[in-house]
């Protein structure tokens, strides 16, 4: 049992965060790992992206104390991959938990009772209480960065938040960075990728996720990429990422 928790975080939307959460979790499950995917985004894209539609309970029910975490875990179409779904109920969490003592630790406390080889958490595109819960519960962070102009500028706030958590809560967060949406036809992607590697050095995954139409299409069919088109460039890249993640000392 590996017991590795990884939070997929970036306050910027459209960087491949949910795509990474779904396909990393799915490939780790294909490799025989016991994987739990948690959808912490009220938009519930990770939930629909693995084909989950009607649910009896969500992560919201766990965070508010209405259900245990075991009660809301559901199976997916992928063997070894379970999911805790989300829905729009989670949208009010920022206000609902605002006066709750220890609100940043709700997910961490809930996860104490479950064991998986990997727990992958997809956080919303902001730095609110749900993302803080993800960071604190997982400690290991995977930060997707698109290989586009201003990619690093948008990370400044995230890095400040990580440093603040380290300083105030004495929690040593461990971010690693993933280059996404790489377009090999453009000089810009190459330059941004080089800049990211120079800045974050060995904290950047070797694997690069390319821009790929099939990756964009798969969620609308409720399928991880390996069930939609396992031979496309996007699928091969996420398989390689999962192999890299599984070989890393977290």
Folded structure, characterized:
This protein has a single domain, classed as P-loop containing nucleotide triphosphate hydrolases (Rossmann fold), CATH 3.40.50. The chain is 38% helix and 18% strand. The protein has 11 helices and 8 strands. The chain has helices at residues 17-30, 45-49, 59-63, 93-96, 106-111, 129-138, 156-169, 187-200, 213-217, 225-228, 233-247; strands spanning 4-8, 35-39, 74-75, 81-84, 118-122, 140-146, 174-182, 204-210. A hairpin with a 5-residue loop joins strand 3 and strand 4 (81-84). Helix 1 (17-30) packs across helix 11 (233-247). The two termini are 13 Å apart. The mean pLDDT is 94.
Provide the descriptors you would attach to this structure in a database record.
250 residues, alpha/beta, Rossmann fold, eight-stranded mixed β-sheet, 8 strands, 18% strand
Number of strands: 8
Shape: globular
CATH architecture: 3-Layer(aba) Sandwich
The CATH topology: Rossmann fold
- Number of helical regions: 11
Structural class assignment: alpha/beta
Set down the secondary structure blueprint:
Layout: E1 4-8, H1 17-30, E2 35-39, H2 45-49, H3 59-63, E3 74-75, E4 81-84, H4 93-96, H5 106-111, E5 118-122, H6 129-138, E6 140-146, H7 156-169, E7 174-182, H8 187-200, E8 204-210, H9 213-217, H10 225-228, H11 233-247
Parallel strand pairs: 1-5, 1-6, 2-4, 2-5, 6-7, 7-8
Antiparallel strand pairs: 3-4
Helix pairs in contact: 1-11
Task: Provide a short characterization of the protein structure.
The chain has 250 residues and is α/β, with parallel strands linked by helices.
């Amino acid at each position: 049992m590996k017991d590795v928790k990884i939070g997929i975080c970036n306050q910027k939307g459209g960087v491949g965060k949910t795509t990474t959460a779904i396909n990393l979790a799915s490939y780790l499950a294909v490799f025989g790992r016991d994987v739990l995917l948690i959808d912490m985004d009220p938009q519930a894209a990770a939930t629909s992206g693995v084909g989950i539609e009607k649910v009896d309970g969500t992560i919201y029910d766990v965070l508010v104390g209405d259900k245990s975490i075991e009660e809301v875990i559901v199976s997916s179409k992928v063997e070894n991959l379970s999911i805790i779904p989300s829905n729009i109920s989670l949208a009010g969490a920022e206000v609902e938990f605002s006066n709750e003592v220890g609100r940043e630790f709700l997910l961490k406390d809930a996860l104490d009772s479950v064991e998986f080889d990997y727990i992958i958490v997809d956080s919303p595109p902001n730095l609110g209480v749900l993302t803080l819960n993800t960071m604190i519960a997982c400690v290991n962070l995977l930060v997707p960065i698109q290989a586009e102009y201003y990619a690093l500028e948008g990370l400044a706030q995230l890095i400040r938040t990580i440093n603040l958590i380290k300083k105030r809560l004495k929690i040593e967060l461990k971010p690693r960075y993933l280059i996404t949406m790489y377009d090999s036809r453009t000089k810009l992607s190459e330059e941004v990728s080089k800049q990211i590697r120079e800045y974050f050095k060995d904290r950047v995954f070797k694997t690069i996720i390319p821009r790929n139409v099939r990756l964009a299409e798969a969620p609308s069919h409720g399928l991880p990429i390996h069930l939609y088109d396992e031979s496309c460039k996007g699928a091969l890249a996420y398989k390689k990422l999962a192999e890299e993640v599984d070989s890393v000392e977290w």
